[in-house]
Amino acid sequence: MTDPAQAAAKAPGIIIQPDAARYFEAAASGVLMIKQCHACGQAHFYPRQACPFCSSQDTAWIESSGSGTVYTYTVLRKGHPGPSIPVFIALDEGPTLLARMVGAEPEDVRIGMRVKACFPPLGPNGAPLLAFAPDPNPDQTARQDAMRS
User: Fold this and answer.
1) Which run of H or E residues covers position 146?
2) How far is CA 101 from CA 92, 110, 130, in A?
3) 15-64 and 65-149: same fold?
4) Which CATH number fits domain 15-64: 3.30.420, 3.10.28, 1.20.120, 2.20.28?
5) Which residues have CB under 8 Å from 65's CB, separation 6+?
């Protein structure tokens, strides 16, 4: 079995920039990392040196809960072995990002659906890529998130 971090590093088409190395290391362990700006406090994704909100370079990696809600989605049926479901996810920490929905049939996906990040080996050479799956405990996750606020 190939180590996911090594697969990502060797995968053609995946070039890991130094600024994003921490993201891919965490992804290999199933953890979603995002950046947060110390100057304005905004969390952002995709990883980059400067904050997209205030342009400060005073940013740091934070571990995301990986929880979010489906903002919107579509179903692609042509050119895939089965339906593919690209989704925009609004993370609980604020950023909205594009990923793939896994572990759900197209008819079960809904806007507002609670989801959790996962990193299945969908990339070249089995590299872990960010995807989202239905949250098995959406009520419990919502309660935990409310307690953190």
Assistant:
1) helix 138-148
2) 17, 11, 9
3) no
4) 2.20.28
5) 91, 92, 93, 145
pLDDT tens for each residue of the chain, 149 residues long = 445 455 455 545 677 777 788 888 899 899 999 999 999 999 999 888 899 999 999 999 999 999 999 999 999 988 767 789 999 999 999 999 999 999 999 999 999 999 999 999 877 777 788 999 999 887 765 555 554 55
Q: How far apart are the first and last CA of the chain?
A: 40
Sign of the CA dihedral running 46, 5, 92, 37: negative
Q: What is the pTM of this model?
A: 0.80
For residue 27, give Cα distances in angstroms to 32, 59, 109, 138.
Answer: 6, 19, 24, 22
For the chain, give every domain's residue range: 15-64, 65-149
Q: Please check whether the domain covering 65-149 is classified as CATH 2.40.50.840.
A: yes
